[in-house]
Structure formats: structure tokens, C-alpha cells
């Protein structure tokens, strides 16, 4: 049963990545970031992402400790990283506001976590993913989390052109001060 959820989760993330790649290579449509909150791209992305996450969670439950039961320290560190990483990602997302976090805003956020990373939600999520992997300790889950991590490492490159188009010199100046993933430039 875990393998079935795994396959559906892989299919969802592959379709997301495929649509994003087609968008990037052809230029015929924008997939990510979506043009607005009411378009097919937005609805398709969120339907597929929800399928991915729900099936990932099901795989975590059904293949929990699939490789072997991890050492107590590994499980504790993993759980801690998962809670901290995903907790921070949710806090940053909701602190920013759902609409702003999804491109429906006319102001560029450069303070708080955004003073240290242009993509703090992705950075925090990567910490959460690493923790979840250590805690669950399953080959299937490691594969799914790796696919998710790769997507989160690539997505900022898709978003930056959109940010430059929408915020112009403000984004270029911000980009010159703050690294894509972590650290301020001096």
C-alpha cells in the first residue's frame, strides 16, 4: 500500500515539474508563479501539490522506519528538525500572508526572515524535509523528499524573472544584498 501512495506522489511532483519545465522552455504559458489566484495554473499546481503532500504523508505512515528503526538520537534530531523547519515555513508563509506568498501583492517583502534569505520558506522547508527523512527513515520517503527538495532548489529561478518584472529596481537592489538561499552580502 505504501508503494501505491509513493507512485501517486511521484506522479504528482513529476507533472508539476513537467509543467514548470514546459513553461520555462516554451514561454507559451506561465505555470509558476501562476499569473493570478484564479487561473488554471494556480488551481492545477495546488491540486497536484496537495496530492503530492497527502500521498507523502501516507507513505511516511505506512513505511515508517522502512529501512530500520533509527537510533534514538537520529529520531529525536529528525523530529526536532521537522518541527522547527516546517513550523518556521508555516510561520513565515502566514506572517507574509497567503496572497502575498503566492504573488498577489504589489509590495516586495525584504524584512524579517527575508532580510537573510530571498527564499526563507524554501530554506525552512528544506530543514523540515531533512528532519522528516531522518525521523521516518524510509527509502520511499527519502526519494519523495529528495524530489521535493530538488523542486524547491529550482523554483526560485522561475520566480526571479517574475519578481524582476513586477518589482524592477527594488528587486534587483534586494537581490544584490541578500543571497538566494541564505546569508546577507556585505
Automatic annotation (TrEMBL):
The keyword NAD does not apply. The chain crosses the membrane at residues 46-64, 76-101, 121-145. Its main location: membrane. It is a multi-pass membrane protein. One of its GO terms (cellular component) is endomembrane system. It comes from the Bacteria. Keywords: Membrane, Transmembrane, Transmembrane helix. InterPro entries: Phopholipid_MeTrfase. The keyword Membrane applies. It is found in: Endomembrane system. It holds the Pfam family PEMT. Gene3D superfamilies: 1.20.120.1630. This is Isoprenylcysteine carboxylmethyltransferase family protein. It comes from Fuerstiella marisgermanici.
Amino acid at each position: 500500500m505504501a508503494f501505491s501512495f509513493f507512485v501517486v506522489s511521484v506522479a504528482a511532483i513529476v507533472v508539476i515539474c513537467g509543467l514548470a519545465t514546459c513553461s520555462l522552455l516554451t514561454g507559451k504559458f506561465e505555470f509558476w508563479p501562476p499569473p493570478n489566484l484564479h487561473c488554471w495554473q494556480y488551481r492545477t499546481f495546488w491540486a497536484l501539490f496537495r496530492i503530492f503532500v497527502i500521498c507523502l504523508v501516507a507513505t511516511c505512515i505506512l513505511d515508517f522506519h522502512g529501512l530500520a528503526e533509527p537510533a534514538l538520537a537520529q529520531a529525536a534530531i529528525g523530529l526536532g528538525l521537522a518541527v522547527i523547519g516546517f513550523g518556521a515555513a508555516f510561520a513565515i508563509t502566514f506572517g507574509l500572508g497567503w496572497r502575498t506568498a503566492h504573488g498577489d501583492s504589489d509590495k516586495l517583502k525584504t524584512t524579517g526572515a527575508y532580510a537573510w534569505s530571498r527564499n526563507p520558506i524554501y530554506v525552512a522547508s528544506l530543514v523540515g524535509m531533512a528532519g522528516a527523512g531522518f525521523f521516518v527513515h524510509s527509502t520511499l520517503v527519502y526519494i519523495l523528499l529528495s524530489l521535493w527538495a530538488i523542486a524547491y532548489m529550482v523554483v526560485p529561478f522561475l520566480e526571479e524573472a517574475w519578481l524582476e518584472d513586477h518589482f524592477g529596481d527594488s528587486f534587483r537592489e534586494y537581490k544584490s544584498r541578500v543571497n538566494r538561499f541564505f546569508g546577507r552580502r556585505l
